[in-house]
Design goal:
The longest helix has 29 residues. The protein is 43% helix and 18% strand. The N and C termini lie far apart (50 Å). It is globular, with a radius of gyration of 17 Å. The strands form 2 sheets. The chain has a 7-stranded parallel beta sheet, sandwiched between helices. A two-stranded antiparallel ribbon has the order 8-9. It contains 8 helices and 9 strands.
Length: 250
């Protein structure tokens, strides 16, 4: 029987690595993101073994989310797995100097975008009494750090949403897994620092950060656990990291 997984933020980083891992596990894929050329490259990479549909939209745009997910052929609407990977940090500054556009971008993508996508898929999961939703939080959702108040708040919201989803949906046969990674080497810091590659590079100097594939492995583990098991909440740190802003560098 065909298994279908939907992955947001699939054009790079954790989303891309997760899509590849899910394809290895036999899932047909709906890969979503804003960068069409990167999604097409990913599709070409994995379509030798599974079927793939690409959807181009920004999770922050509710109309786009509704339009694109409603456009799926009927045979693709029985989505079994959702990975809410889309989201980002924008800027790093004291609350009194925060950029309002950065705040909007983080809340709209990390919180509202996750909700928009989930809301479209959950009713069908409830009808089938089957599904597994993965929400990508962060260790910043566990512990707030200076100059990151709004980003941390957006990830604390993901933590609360994951808890709420579990309370609301467990009785309908739907599993919820919240994943909170520490320092992962992706485009994250480059986005946060507005394309400043040198500043972004320094974030990962002097230690070995997590890789996107590490997060994908955890998702695969949770999916392959016995049906009686729900992996509810996972925190991953790099070996050299002990807290969101505590990293032991060489």
């Amino acid at each position: 029987m065909t298994k279908i997984a939907l992955v947001t933020g699939a054009s790079s980083g954790i989303g891309k690595a997760t899509a590849i891992k899910l394809a290895e596990n036999g899932y047909d894929l709906i890969i979503c993101g804003r960068r069409e050329e990167k999604l097409e490259a990913l599709k070409n990479q994995v379509s030798k073994t599974v079927q793939v549909i690409t959807l181009i939209f920004d999770v922050r745009n509710r109309k786009e989310v509704d339009l694109q997910l409603n456009s799926l052929p009927s045979e693709w609407k029985n989505i079994e797995v959702v990975v809410n990977s889309a989201g980002n940090a924008h800027g790093l500054s004291s609350i009194d100097a925060g950029d309002l556009d950065d705040w909007d971008a983080m809340i709209d993508s990390n919180v509202k975008g996750l909700l928009y996508v989930s809301r479209m898929v959950i009713p069908t999961m409830m009808e089938r009494r089957k599904g597994h939703i993965f929400n990508l939080s962060s260790v910043a959702g566990k512990q707030t750090y200076a100059n990151g108040a709004v980003y941390c708040a957006s990830k604390k919201a993901v933590e609360a949403i994951s808890e709420g989803m579990r309370l609301d949906l467990t009785e309908h046969g739907i599993k919820i897994t919240n994943i909170a990674p520490g320092a992962v080497e992706t485009e994250f810091s480059e986005v946060r620092f507005k394309g400043d590659k040198e500043r972004a590079k320094k974030v990962y100097e002097g230690f070995e950060p997590l890789q996107p594939e590490d997060i994908a492995d955890v998702i695969a583990y949770a999916l392959n656990a016995p049906e009686r098991v729900t992996i509810g909440d996972v925190v991953l740190y790099a070996k050299s990291q002990s807290a969101p802003t505590t990293i032991y560098r060489k």
